[in-house]
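Comment thread on ticket #2218

A.B. wrote:
> Attaching the input chain for the structure job we discussed in standup.
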Amino acid sequence: MLQFRDFFKSGHSPTLWSAFLYFAFSCAVWVINGAMAPFITESLKLTPTQMGIMLSIPIFAGALMRFPLGILAQYIGRKNATLVEMAGIFIAMGYGYLFVNDYNDLLAMGVLLGVAGASFGVALSLGSGSFPPRYKGLAMGIVGAGNVGTAVSALLAPVLAQKFGWQSVYGFAAVSVAIPALVMAIYAKEPPDRAPHASFREHIACLFEKDGWAFSLIYAVTFGGFIGLIAFMPTYFYDQFGVSKVQAGQLTMMAAFLGAALRVFGGWLSDLWGGVNTLTGVLAITTVSLVLCGLAENSLPVTMLLFLVCFAALGAGNGALFQLVPLRWPLSTAVAGSMIGEIGALGGGLIPNAMGLSRQYGGTYLWGFVSIAVCAAAMLVLLRVMQIRWTRTWAEKGGRARSA
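C.D. wrote:
> Ran it. Output below, let me know if you need it in another format.
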């Protein structure tokens, strides 16, 4: 308890919680099509492949918008960048409410939903920016727990879609954006941890480094796995086990909530034990649980238990990886985080496509799960190779922050 009291005193807590709320709302909007996928699929008569494309586009678009937003934040400030983005979310939700009526409109809407997905790197850098290095993992874990917005979306969107129609859910989201925007404008302040005179080349240096790409590929499994599976799970539960659309959302909410909550634990554990050590366990658990999920496709209770294990690992892995980012790039965390988050989310965009193709052409979702598990195993090997140099240069053994 004393450690948490010291933690909150060491930085600017109102900015931390403002960043958390902003990220939570953005995550909820980003996966809103996934939460409503059973309604949309039934309304527009989509094939499994069309459904996979529909779910992938917001993830891809959000990934591609992350790095530009991170660059913008370096020049206008992270707080101002969040307010610009939330204005964009309002416009996107208005378009969804007024103009989305067929499949082509839905694909265009998916691109606009990417505006919400761009929030990641800026949110984490803003919330953790005033905290000292020894608490960066915990601060980023708290902000990153805004992934809980995906659980809120999975819980509320199906209920609202059933009562008011799925297009109306976009309207509710447009009105709701006022809450995080006002909190951000009133309570947040720009942290001091930026290099205002750095050149553009210095800001994007992580693009040209092996470490940047290693982090990105690992994050493509941890966060990409989290967001890609969350977007797909309502469809999976509805199609595979025949539960109702609302029940599919409730089951998804349980996994999403656990994964978001464990992100805080992953950051905290990494501060103590080391991000590399934590990620090693995370990737091993993810690999095994995904294969077992595919093999347990005839049992809903077993599948749900395995999903909970998998999402606990993925959530902790997200916190663990971003405990390492500010240690590696202390003065350009926002840009490095946006670049890593961008490629990580791109990995997530492949998951609904892989699952849809597996179902349509293989008659089962098993091969989709296996393909994700193979990627997790490959990243475990990559991590163990790269950590040898990391712990000789910028991190202590196991991936902890250096004392000096």
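A.B. wrote:
> Thanks. Noting for the ticket: The CA atoms of residues 133 and 360 lie 48 Å apart.
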